[in-house]
Amino acid sequence: MVDKKLILAVAGSGKTTNLIDKLNLTERFYLVTYTITNASLIRLRIIKKFGYLPNNIKVFTYFNFLYSFCIKPFLFYKYNLKGVFLENSPEPTNYFKNSNIRKYISKSGYAYHNRLGKLIEHENLIEDIKLRLEKFCDHFYYDEVQDLGGHDFNFIMELSKSNVNFLFVGDFYQQTYVTSFDRNVNGTLHKDYDKYLKRYEDFNISIDLETLSNSWRCSPTICNYISENLGILIGSHRTDPTEIILIEDKEKLSSIIKDNSIIKLVYNNANKRDFRAKNWGECKGEDDYIDTCIIMNATTFKLYKKDDLNNLANRTKNKLYVAFSRTRGNCYLVDEKLLK
Fold it and tell me: Which H or E run contains 50?
């Protein structure tokens, strides 16, 4: 009997390790994740385990899986496909009827990445794809599943009906990007935690809230702060305390800015800073920081001073959670105005 499961994880709890530990050389595994960076990390971890990348284990980015495995085998000759257009589909295509193939594929033969899931639905491919998956795969693992949205979520849920073992792993609150957003399709998918879980249960996917509920990366200090101030429950395997320090002195801030061992995490425009910086949301997946310096924009800092960070907009709060949870050591907090 096949197994269908969603493991909800917290930051630094070992999601990738959990997946890698399940791999073997006798069964066939497909591992799918959203970003190229994470796919590369997974490949490196597989090579570390086995010494090479075994033929029975395939790693895909999500859009690579959709195009190369799900669409190209069926539509390559029909539409003379050239590849995937990785920018958002042009604005005029939003007004094409769903029956118009130009809504999904450009005249030059490039499929729009944010409409691949809908293209599968348009071409009635789902049953053929399920049969194809059953032919080539025993275990389908999806990492960072919280980034699925729009028609893509619907497609993967339908795919999970295949006679294949499915394991989804992700952190609901690290949803900072989305694979696709097409008007009202799953537009509120990530607004309610309980309703989100119910969507999986409706497809007979069991929910595991315990296995990855504690972080190896973050100290109890960081985890407690996140739980109490952002309303995101996260435990720690560690017992050693660290510090969260508000920096209000320009001289102290200057020394932190000059210290390249301390990563500066900013709300946006990291590439425009004259110091080593990453945007809050874009540091997701990073695991090699010790001390961090979180530079807060005006809205966030105002709520911080009121002890009211839980009332940040959900997307902003998720990004701040990502930033806090990169920290292995001490975390410095700064009002962006202090940089001026």
Answer: helix 36-50
